[in-house]
Amino acid sequence: MLFHSQEFLLLFLPVALIGWYAAAGRKELRVAWMIVASLAFYAYWDLRLLPLLGLSILGNWGLAALAYGGDGRAWMQRVAAPLGITLNLFVLGVFKYADFMADSIAWLIAQPHEPWGIVLPLGISFFTFQQISYLADLRKGKAPVYGLADYALYVSFFPQLIAGPIVRHDELIHQFDAYPNRDGLSERLMRGAALLLIGVSKKVLLADVFAAQADPIFAHVEAGNAIGFVDAWAGAGAFGLQIYFDFSAYSDMAIGLAMMAGIRLPENFNAPYRAVSLVDFWRRWHMTLSRFLRDYLYFSLGGNRAGRVRQALALTATMLLGGLWHGAAWTFVIWGGLHGIGLVVSHFWGKTGISIGRPLSWAATMLFVFWTWVMFRAESMSGAMALWTAMLGLPGGDGAAPINFADLSGAGWLLAGAVIAALGPTSQSAVFTYLRPVRGLATAAALLAVFLVFRLGGGTNQEFIYFQF
Predict the structure, then answer these.
(1) Are residues 172 and 254 in the same domain?
(2) Which one of 53, 115, 149, 403 is separated from 161 by 20 to 30 angstroms, measured CA to CA?
(3) Co-location of 340 and 206 in the same domain
(4) pLDDT of 459 strictly over 80
């Protein structure tokens, strides 16, 4: 079920929180309750996928306990983490990339390929990376062997199970020991609910509106039709704002939901459209994924410790794999590769000491980000190239576009979204720093919540973009 659905907001969430707080005095009971609630949340999407999540949890914990528990031997500890990481990547590869690789090989040898129809388990990229980070830390001696219940909740905790943040064990598991009814309960509930409301508002009132602008433009291009210069930029701009508010909304909701249970998740989104360089952008966008790729891949490839050439190769390889993580398609690989090259240029430009000024640097960064979002969003290479061609003002396609997508109302929404993204306060700063208990504000929030719940009943709410990864 979606966070922004009536069944989640009116049924699942209240039941999950009531059970959590009802068992506040007994850690084992409340942890067991939240595990059951989280597994039920996951099973709601597709009951067939629940065994995979359960086996993944049991397999990783069992391997860790066997090798690094009290009776573990040295040789077991040397092979356990690499073996576990390999098995995790193998499972991820089978479910997410087997069909993609088979199709690519078939294309190379000019043979047809019928899709195998492998069901992609929801959230597999996220809970796999989370468990890989634990095994890697275990091997380095930076993690203990946790009890099965704590570990199972660490992996399955529903606010972050489907699309992150990618949480490290030492950021989350110790919080399960905290008494939920400790001092500050009402404030945590209030601020968590405020973040949830902000996230739902962003998703419904901004992200889905921009999706309605971007989708027909991209579909028109994918059908092989020509499109005008203004419409091409409107489509790229609309998707850039859609994915911004879509992922920002999910991040707000995830952190807000966890906060309502008295648990703090790490920040995952910090106004990336204010970035003045590509390095700055990736410090702000999907921060926990960027951190994972840096700590467990980029540094392993040499990072910035082995010379500029090695650093450039490490950056490019990391972003290529980061692009592939987002989706099993060459469009994602190319998008990641472009960002890898952009990061190399950004890093080396910073070492020259030459400054072009923050306004120009910001404009160049945003131009690159929005330009490359086209490759991220396009369903095919031809679709991306067609839109890029139109954005350059060059002719293309099989004929003139039958309709003009751009209009004044759409332009107004794009401008409003851009201003909010570039100048507005971040949700977390608004909630954790500036929000105060004001009766009028509480009344307005309650009315907005009622309006959103009724609007969500129309059945038009869309899934989050990052659910497909």
Answers:
(1) no
(2) 115
(3) yes
(4) no
Q: How far is CA 418 from CA 101, 210, 285, in A?
A: 38, 11, 16
pLDDT in tens, 400-428: 444 455 565 678 888 889 999 999 888 88
Same domain for 194 and 144: no
Active-site residue, from 4, 220, 286, 326: 326
How much is the pLDDT for 405?
A: 59
Choosing from 127, 149, 177, the residue where a domain stops is: 177
| Distance between CA atoms of residues 25 and 95, nearest Å | 40
**Rg (the chain; Cα; Å):** 23
Tens-digit pLDDT profile for residues 50-84: 999 999 999 999 999 988 876 666 767 788 889 99
286 in catalytic set: no
381 and 449 both lie in a single domain: yes
For the beta carbon of residue 110, count every other beta carbon within 10 angstroms: 6
How many C-beta neighbours within 10 Å does residue 84 have? 23
Question: In terms of domains, do 214 and 312 share one?
Answer: yes
What's the CA angle centered on 2, arms 43 and 251, to 5 degrees?
A: 110
Burial class (CB in 10 A: 0-12, 13-18, 19+), 140: exposed
Which range in 281-285, 311-315, 403-407 is most confidently predicted, on average pLDDT? 281-285
Residues 171, 225 share a domain = no
Domain identity same for 329 and 221:
yes
pLDDT digits (tens, 9 = 90+) for 206-242: 999 999 999 999 999 998 888 888 889 999 999 999 9
Q: Is residue 435 part of a domain?
A: yes
Reference 329, options 128, 115, 53; nearest CA is 115
- What is the rounded distance in angstroms from the CA atom of residue 195 to the CA atom of residue 183? 20
User: What pLDDT is attached to residue 409?
Assistant: 64
Could you give the residue ranges of the DSSP H alpha helices within 93-205? 98-108, 124-139, 148-156, 158-161, 169-172, 185-202
Q: Which residue has 């840096």 as its token pair?
A: 294
Q: Give the number of residues written for the chain.
A: 469
